[in-house]
Specification:
Length: 137
């Protein structure tokens, strides 16, 4: 049989679902479930498992990149990516600029500008410890 890759995946989805349904059938039979409930359990098991696997295959096929499509730029290559999160943290960020370079004086993430210049004083360290929840003993 000459199957395409997609047909092979659906074949394995059916095989795995059928194996699980037969396992449920065997265990239900060993537990003494009557024939009507046994058939119902087998049908439900196969339907749910096959639906989940086939749905996953459809989802991955629809979200896959087409051949030749350019990948998303990595955040490491572009320092402006991820700056929109600063808005939700109430940091002042100038999003009106179209440049991909971050503004001078703004720092990615939640960096306190007073901490960027170098080491901090003992008073600032103690204040930072208190805000983190550490108490003096």
């Amino acid at each position: 049989m000459d199957y395409s890759k997609e047909q092979q995946l659906y074949f394995w989805a059916k095989t795995i679902s059928l194996a699980a349904a037969l396992t449920v059938c065997l265990l239900s039979f060993l537990n003494g479930v009557n024939f009507g409930w046994l058939v119902f359990r087998v049908i439900i098991t196969f339907s749910i498992l096959y639906g989940l696997i086939a749905g996953s295959l459809i989802f991955f096929r629809k979200t896959a990149q087409a051949d030749g499509q350019e990948e998303m730029p990595a955040a490491d290559n572009n320092p402006a990516l991820g700056r929109k999160i600063d808005i939700s943290l109430e940091d002042e960020v100038n999003l009106a600029s179209d440049s991909r370079e971050p503004d001078k004086g703004t720092y990615a993430g939640q960096v306190d500008p007073a901490l960027v210049s170098g080491s901090i004083s003992h008073k600032q360290q103690a204040d930072l410890m208190r805000r983190m929840g550490w108490k003096e003993e």
